[in-house]
Design brief:
By secondary structure, this protein is of the alpha/beta class. It is built from 19 helices and 18 strands. The two termini are about 50 Å apart. It binds adenosine-5'-triphosphate. The site of adenosine-5'-triphosphate has 17 residues, from helix 8 and helix 16. It holds the Pfam family Response_reg.
Length: about 450
């Protein structure tokens, strides 16, 4: 297998003949770019070019292998060093491996082949490392707030400023706002801008997990802790170690779990269900709710002490209807994305459709807008979306009847027929059908609510 990624290798060997042999072997792979050095100093002087791998002769005229290895690793901690020595001394080998050498080879007639294999193994690790870096960069880019969170209204600009502040420290962040306003998106943006971005972002929707499972979900359980606990399982707190734990719908946590959560946060240790070992964790906490948590405290449904523990930096997300022309900006971006993903001609909104979007209150906020736009793109008869293509709940703007097709069925009925067919063939699994048809799941939920389709 040849890799398209070049790998740079330094061969440090004072014996010219031996150096030649190693270079000859490795040069068989055209992706390896090789440089040879006969002294430790000449290698150290060239480390700024950042080789991926160094093969290091243990006995160089100007330095012993372990000292040179240390100097190399001080400058390039990530470089893979393969030590090569003429002496079969186990202690030397162990010492070098302890100093961080990747491998140790003894000079004999098979060294070149073993080096070839060792470099091949390193290459695989390097490819994984590069892939990881690439993915991490992509994620970082994706969650660069200015790119992922769309909007130009003063409210959104204030939000960007708060995200920057939150990302600079480890302070707990409490997000509030109506459903679909982007609370989870903001939590991710903060995580991926923070020093913890290389750690995991672990999201738990407290309301979506049955009470009896939630404790073990959060804190883990030991094998045999309860019927069904056939293996030990680490909880979300442990999973988020060095990263961020995002607890969504925190107001739905019942009072007994609130007490446990408070203790865990105070002590920064979890005890798995059925266990007695206290396991320290280092996760940053972010919480979100669509409720007024202070009001929940007043009404005795949320512990006051936990409330103050979690409040940290409060960020309130404005409803979409208060973001002025951001509605059109978001709608345009969602439309472009959807048409691009589905290889449809570029679409736009007619002025009347834009007006309709601007005058609708969007109780489901950005999530609803996205679903409405995607459905409109499917329903529209031309590449200009008209008001009647926008299916808004209880809309005040009068919408003409959907166009009749030659067969006499309205497009909306046809759409319902298609969705019904997929629901029937996918056991009523809304998520699967939404993915298959590339429409928002809320669109299908709405069709179910309006009795346009049925879950049989
Ligand atoms: N400003 C924005 N720019 C682009 N996309 C957004 C914006 N705000 C929200 N979204 C998108 O809207 C959808 C809903 O966002 P998100 O899940 O973050 O909302 P939420 O407030 O956490 O919802 P809930 O309270 O229901 O959990 C997601 O697809 C998200 O990417």
């Amino acid at each position: 297998m040849s890799t398209s990624l070049p790998i740079s290798i330094f061969i440090v060997e004072d014996n010219a003949w031996y150096g030649e042999l190693l270079e000859y072997k490795l040069a068989q792979n055209p992706d390896y770019s090789i440089r040879r050095f006969t002294t430790a100093q000449s290698c150290l002087d060239n480390l700024s070019t950042k080789p991926d791998i160094i093969t290091l002769d243990y006995s160089l005229p100007d330095g012993k292998g372990d000292q040179v290895l240390r100097q190399i690793r001080e400058k390039l901690p990530d470089v893979f060093v393969i030590a090569i020595s003429g002496q079969e001394d186990v202690r030397t080998a162990i010492g070098l491996l302890r100093e961080g050498a990747y491998d140790y080879l003894v000079k004999d007639e098979e060294t070149a082949d073993r080096l070839w294999n060792a470099v091949g193994n390193i290459r695989k690790q390097l490819e994984l490392r590069r892939e990881n870096t690439r993915l991490r960069e992509q994620i970082g880019e994706k969650y660069e707030p200015e790119r992922a969170i769309l909007g130009e209204s003063p409210q959104i600009n204030q939000l960007f400023a708060l995200i920057e502040k939150a990302a600079r420290t480890n302070i707990t962040v409490s997000l509030s706002g109506e459903t679909g306003t982007g609370k989870e998106l903001v939590a991710k943006a903060i995580h991926f801008r923070s020093e913890r971005s290389t750690g995991a972002f672990v999201a738990v929707n407290v309301a979506a997990i049955p009470r009896e499972l939630l404790e073990s979900e959060l804190f883990g359980h030991e094998k045999g802790a309860f019927t069904g606990a056939i293996v030990r399982r680490i909880g979300r707190f442990e999973e988020a170690h060095k990263g961020t734990l995002f607890l969504d719908e925190i107001a739905e946590l019942d009072l007994s779990l609130q007490a446990k959560l408070l203790r865990v946060i105070q002590e920064r240790e979890v005890t798995r269900v059925g266990g007695n070992q206290r396991i320290p964790f280092d996760a940053r906490l972010m919480v979100a709710t669509h409720r007024d948590l202070a009001q929940e405290v007043k009404e005795g449904r949320f512990r006051e002490d936990l409330y103050y523990r979690l409040l940290g930096l409060p960020i309130q997300l404005p409803p979409l209807r208060e973001r002025g022309r951001d509605v059109l900006l978001l709608a345009g971006a969602f439309l472009q994305d959807f048409c691009g993903q589905n290889k449809m001609a570029a679409c736009s909104f007619s002025p009347a459709a834009q007006q309709k979007l601007l005058s609708y209150p969007f109780p489901g906020n950005v999530r609803e807008l996205k679903a409405v736009v995607e459905l409109a793109a499917v329903l529209a008869e031309s590449d200009v979306i008209q008001p009647q293509d926008l299916s808004l709940r209880g809309s005040t703007v009068s919408t003409p009847e959907p166009t009749e097709t030659p067969g006499g069925e309205s497009l909306r009925i046809q759409m319902a027929n298609i969705v019904q067919h997929y629901l029937d063939t996918h056991n009523g699994n809304i998520l699967q059908v939404a993915a298959k048809l590339q429409i928002g799941k809320s669109t299908i939920y709405r069709m179910v609510q309006n009795n346009e389709v049925r879950l049989r």
